Amino acid sequence: MNSQLNPTKIAFIGAGYMASEHLKAFYDLPNVHLSGIFTRTIDKALALKSVYPDLEIYDSINSLYSKTKADLVVIAVPELACLSVCEEAFIYPWKLLIEKPVGYNFSEALKIEMLANELNSEVYVALNRRFYSSTIQAINKLKNLQSNRLITILDQEDAIGALASGQPEKVVKNWMYANSLHLIDYFSMLCRGEHVTTKIIEPWEPKRPKPVMAKLIFSSGDIGIYQGIWNAPGPWSVAISTEELRMELRPIEQLSLQQKGSRSIEMQAIDPLDNKYKPGIYRQAEEAVKAARNIKNSLPMLEDANRSMSLVSSIYQSQ
Asked: What contacts 59, CB < 8 A, 6 or more positions away?
């Protein structure tokens, strides 16, 4: 943390794992002050304060804002608490960065977006995979390629494991929003134009989960192919095929290239920031500070995140 005058003040709601990862990144940014935290789990807040002594603990969202006048609040709470926290946090004039998913399903996400519009809240969503060095490298490679893109995503979800780990049943029933969103958001990032339609190849059967397959068509001519493997092994991967170049993120944190006319695979280096911090989190925090300072930034706003939630809904035919 830098001690320059007028630092950007960052507050936090929630004290779990993701909150701790956000804190780590913001703490290391210049001219940033971690001004306060509110959580219903005081023991977790005390544990964070032992690492960040300047972090004051407050007993309500109202006192968090009124005492800190924070420029930005980071909300990292469980899915089922998100709506009620947003209803209170949107009242205040800070900017907001909310950990995904913003709402446990699509209907709730739209409700939160409507609330943000009614209260003129400036809301961003922490889709940190957009800030992976591998993702940024892939997007940069695509900038000068004009041919159509075929984006193939392989998703793997373990609903049984999620329940066993203590996830609420209501969240697990909507696990495609809580977890598949991480991957389906790549369609929003990489496919150009508007989403025209989704053709279901293998439908989602919630009572008997099996592989889900769908074809997404975009107005640009780009095509997305989604495969979701449930309660069975499989790697997460994103493949990008163009006439000139094939790229693959597998694991998602690393990009590999295959040039036209070549059989060799070129592995791209991972930015050291994605080893020091949870991948993407530091660059995301940099952009969040820009937003707090009213500087142009690349953070996705709530409506951007909800476009990806809409894609999830189109694949799983679920609201």
From this structure: 38
